[in-house]
Amino acid sequence: RAMRNQPPWRLLHEVTATSRHYVDRLFDPDPQKVLQGVIDMKNAVIGNNKQKANLIVLGAVPRLLYLLQQSSSSLELRTECAVVLGSLAMGTENNIKSLVDCHIIPALLQGLLSPDLIFIEACLRCLRTVFISPVTPVQLLYTDPTVIPHLMSLLSSSQRTQEYITQIFSHCCKTPEHQTVLFNHGAIQNIAPLLISPSYKVRMQALKCFSVLAYENTQVSMTLVNVLVDGELLSQVFVKMMQRDQPIEMQLTAAKCLTYMCRAGAIRTDDSCIVLKTLPCLVRMCSKEHLLEERVEGAETLAYLMEPDVELQRIASTTDHLVAMLADYFKYPSSVSAITDIKRVVKTNIQAHDGLSLF
Question: Would you say which domain of life the source belongs to (predicted)?
Answer without folding.
Answer: Eukaryota
